[in-house]
Amino acid sequence: MSRTTDLPLSDARALIARAIDKAEQIGMRGSIVVIGGTGALVSGSRMDHGGAGGMTRARSKAWIAATQQIPSVEHLGRMRMIPAPMVSGFTVCSPEAIFPGAGGMLIHEHGDPSRPVIAGIAASGAGIGPFVGYPGSDPEKLIADGKPSNGEDLLVHYALGRPYVGQHGDDLERWINAYGSFPENPGPGLGMAPAPAAQDQDEHHWALALAGRVIAAATEQGLLVSLAIVDRRGDPIQLDRMDGAVAASPVVAEAVAATAATFGVASEKLGELYPEDGQLERLAAALPYPILSSPGGLPILEDGIVVAGLGIAGPPPSVCGRLAAAVLPAD
């Protein structure tokens, strides 16, 4: 039986790494996310100083591309053509499409456009957008195959190894506004030239290392997990779902990680802080990020101060709690 499948985690990680290499080369910072063809998250990474909210925006655009099986810019055009009640209805039916912006691109099985869609990829963040004039960046880095390009679309196309096609309107106008007239004979430019491996990403590399320890420990125990590493405010730094892990697990992992990071306790202890009937429900409604009082999330401390949170989900919660405790170093 033919079923909808997702891009493997290793392939998603490789695409994200390429995007981060190109982003750092240009001077961008933000988040890159890959969503599987089923609509379940595969992986997402936030660059250092990438800003809160970028992961959510990228996740939405990648989800649209993966599940609607069209570039998100095409979806945006469709949303502009239909009556407002239908637009609202789509959002209600598809709450993960809360940011229907351009930039989300398709990934087909075996890279063949005639094959099924197995993922979508998108980028967003504090310094990733359809811009041209990045401070201190060589203008030639934003020339792709002899054409002006914008940073967001460039890094996604570079990651995918595809010829550049802008998704955000008039790149030439943006170029002129940023740098003046476009060269008459620009040559191929450096937009698609190989980018060196990103170096100035200490937090990102720390999160990748911690995620690697979680995945290695889970593999050793025969577990399939999702993990979330979030900052002290609960915004995601690294998200991963192992191949075969259940689809709900990324959402649960993020919720328990945010609980641990923002309250500074193991996620299952939140109920002890708010023991009265209905308190947890009112608390969850008041916060702008998901929380969950269940095992699997632990705060990450440096010198006794909470700096981040780790969440693990998929297996039974008690197992996830023990796994999180096993991979976190003592403060």
How does this model look, in words?
It is a single chain. Helix content is 39%, strand content 17%. By secondary structure, it is of the alpha+beta class. It folds into 2 domains: 9-179, Beta-Lactamase (2-Layer Sandwich), CATH 3.30.450; 202-327, Beta-Lactamase, CATH 3.30.450.150. An 8-stranded antiparallel β-sheet has the order 3-4-1-2-8-7-10-9, with helices on both faces. Helix 7 crosses helix 11. The longest helix has 19 residues, at 202-220. It starts with 8 loop residues before the first helix and ends with a helix.
Keywords, please?
about 325 residues; alpha+beta; Beta-Lactamase; eight-stranded antiparallel sheet; two-stranded antiparallel ribbon; 10 strands
- Oligomeric composition of the shown chains: single chain
The secondary structure category is alpha+beta
Number of helices: 11
Which runs of at least 5 residues are low in confidence (pLDDT < 50)?
A: none
Which band does the percent of strand residues land in?
15-25%
Topology pattern, helix = H, strand = E:
HEEHHHEEEEHHHEEHHHEEH
User: What is the correct CATH architecture of the largest domain?
Assistant: 2-Layer Sandwich
The average pLDDT value, as a whole number, equals 95
Q: Give the proportion of residues in helices.
A: 25-40%
Order of the strands making up the biggest sheet: 3-4-1-2-8-7-10-9
Shape: globular
Rg, Å, rounded: 20 Å
- Main β-sheet description: 8 strands, antiparallel
Count the domains: 2
